[in-house]
TrEMBL record:
Species this chain originates from: Mesembrinibis cayennensis
Family per record: Belongs to the WSCD family.
An example Gene Ontology molecular-function term: sulfotransferase activity
Keyword check for Chloroplast: no
Pfam families: Sulfotransfer_1, WSC
UniProt superkingdom: Eukaryota
Keyword terms of this UniProt record: Repeat
Stated name of the protein: WSCD1 protein
Length: 575
């Protein structure tokens, strides 16, 4: 019996060793295969970067587009012979009319690789909600205690900032001080709230137990709890950094007292005195007429849309001048207009799945900012961008098919990707501007500029070769496969924000008030202006690039008119 047991034990040991050896061999073989495939994909991607495909253009188009043809385009797109964008001669036998499908597939894969590489490289560099500020280990403000925070009726609602990665007590304090607030409150370890009134309901100190995302060992509130600091001591130093913006001269409304909630009459009134008074009252506008100072918001009665000649406001501080008090000076205070800053997810799943589609660099993030503040609902994204999530785009982490967001950002094209959506807002921007914006984003993030070295590298011509055709094919695909489209030109949105934004909101089947739209206009830039040194009179496009892009512009213009949409703005050409 013992002998049989010994043989069985010996057999099992050999079997165990054999299984271990086979498993190791299997894993090694799999690893080698994976490495081989990865190398193949990289090689194919590098080859795809420098190739280009033809787009349809009208007959006889051999050089730069004549801008007059945008006014009278010929009906029916024709196929231009295939050509290499910048270097090779015509290759009329190489490509068929089916180039669009294969080209889009290749470029989508290229885009995804660049996008994920960029996110991993750039995310640690992004800071949301604030301009870059010097971090200080000591908290200069006076700690007032832990307070309850009711999201439905906040006391500190003068300004709201998010930094879901690098929030510190000092960041919040300095941001509130620069905007002339008295108190700074932190919650959830990442949210900053400013105001001039101390919250009424105090909480136990231990209930503020969330560590600051960007400062270990420091407390930044808790769940529905605010760590509140008084920052008045910082305001004197921050005052010289505050930005009071002159909005212009306007005709005064008939009844200023009814139009503006707060007022002050002061002999020898100055702009600084009026701005400081309105800031303490938490109003974004300071209005001066003689010795009178009024505070309020842009409203239907006083929309700031019809400015008057500045000469009518000259000598405003002289009581007998300024056209007998019919005109007033308007200034933007450092205070944020908070009538449109509240946002949330949809309470029930949307029945209509809406895309916010654009070519990269066409202003999609800015459009999301406008839509979120106009509707009060978060927007989603087909991708995940940690930098945008840190800026308060909470829909970034929500699954793009959850239907809990008002619309979903996408740069995708192609039949399958487009037909997933029931309708779409198609945002189009001048391809010259789009290409430069996307190249800047690729090398310097959402708010930076690429360096001279980047622009002069070989990657810029390769980038134009690959992305210029994508700009056109993206629009053509959505025109072909989109079920219900609203075409919005970035330039029109920038120039006529409220009419265009109202059109977009109605397309999303949301009803908003005029005052909310005026609030969005007052906060139109958000945190999306690029910072850093911008090159003046910089022209990165060669003549060959211009010839190529102008052909694509004409093609897209003709396709839009063929679908009964308005054509591209005239400013797109010539270059």
């Amino acid at each position: 019996m013992a002998k049989a047991f010994f043989r069985l034990q010996k057999f099992l040991r050999r079997t165990q060793f054999l299984l271990f050896f086979l498993t190791a061999a299997y894993l090694m073989a799999g690893s080698l295969l994976l490495l081989q495939r990865t190398r193949l994909v990289i090689q194919q991607g590098s080859r795809g970067t420098s190739t280009n495909q033809a787009l349809p253009v009208p007959d006889g188009m051999a050089g730069i587009v004549d801008p007059r043809t945008l006014q009278n385009p010929r009906p029916g797109p024709r196929l231009l012979v295939g050509m290499d964008a910048l270097q090779e001669p015509a290759l009329d036998q190489r490509h068929s009319p089916r180039w669009l499908v294969s080209r889009n597939s290749e470029l989508r894969q290229l885009r995804r690789r660049w996008f994920h590489r960029f996110i991993s490289d750039q995310e640690p560099m992004q800071t949301a909600g604030f301009k870059a500020m010097k971090h200080t280990a000591e908290h200069k403000g006076t700690y007032m205690g832990c307070f309850s925070d009711d999201s439905r009726e906040r006391t500190l609602k003068g300004a709201v900032f998010y930094d879901l990665r690098k929030m510190t007590v000092s960041h919040c304090q300095e941001a509130c001080a620069e905007r002339a607030y008295t108190y700074a409150g932190l919650a959830y370890g990442a949210e900053c709230y400013c105001g001039n009134k101390l919250p009424a309901a105090a909480s136990k100190p231990e209930e503020c137990n969330s560590e600051c995302k960007g400062e270990k060992g420091s407390v930044c509130g808790g769940v529905n709890r605010l760590s509140v600091y008084r920052v008045e001591e910082l305001r004197a130093g921050a005052r010289r950094r505050r930005n009071v913006i002159y909005r212009g001269c306007f005709r005064a409304p008939e009844n200023l007292t009814d139009t503006f909630p707060a007022s002050l009459i002061q002999p020898n009134l100055t702009v600084e005195m009026c701005s400081e008074f309105c800031s303490k009252k938490e109003f974004p506008l300071a209005v001066i007429r003689g010795r009178e100072c009024y505070c309020g918001y842009p409203t239907g009665r006083f929309s700031l849309h019809d400015g008057a000649d500045g000469l009518l406001c000259s000598g405003m501080h002289n009581a007998s001048s300024a056209a007998e008090g019919k005109y007033c000076l308007v200034y933007q205070t450092p205070v944020q207009d908070t009538r449109c800053t509240d946002r949330k997810f949809l309470t029930t799943k949307s029945k209509v799945f809406v895309a916010l589609s654009s070519f990269p660099g066409a202003g999609n993030t800015w459009a999301r900012h406008l839509i979120e503040h106009a509707t009060g609902y978060y927007t989603g994204s087909y991708y995940f961008d940690g930098a945008l999530y840190n800026k308060g785009f909470k829909g970034e982490k929500d699954h793009w098919r959850s239907r809990r967001t008002i619309c979903v950002k996408t740069h995708e094209s192609g039949k399958t990707e487009i037909e997933m959506f029931d309708s779409a807002i198609l945002l189009i921007r001048n391809p010259y501007k789009s290409l430069m914006a996307e190249f800047n984003r690729k090398y310097a993030g959402h708010l930076g500029y690429a360096t001279d070295r980047n622009w002069k590298s070989k990657e810029w011509p390769d980038f134009v070769n690959s992305y210029a055709s994508w700009w056109a094919s993206h629009v053509l695909d959505w025109l072909k496969y989109g079920k219900r489209l609203l075409v919005v030109h970035y330039e029109d949105l920038k120039q006529s924000l409220i009419p265009k934004l109202r059109e977009m909101v109605e397309f999303l089947n949301v009803t908003v008030t005029e005052d909310r739209l005026l609030c969005v206009e007052n906060n139109r830039d958000g945190n999306f202006k690029r910072s850093g040194a911008k090159q003046k009179d910089f022209e990165p496009f060669t003549q060959e690039m211009k010839d190529l892009i102008n052909r694509y512009i004409l093609t897209v213009d003709e396709a839009l008119r063929g679908r009964n949409f308005s054509g591209l703005p005239r400013e797109y050409v010539p270059r």
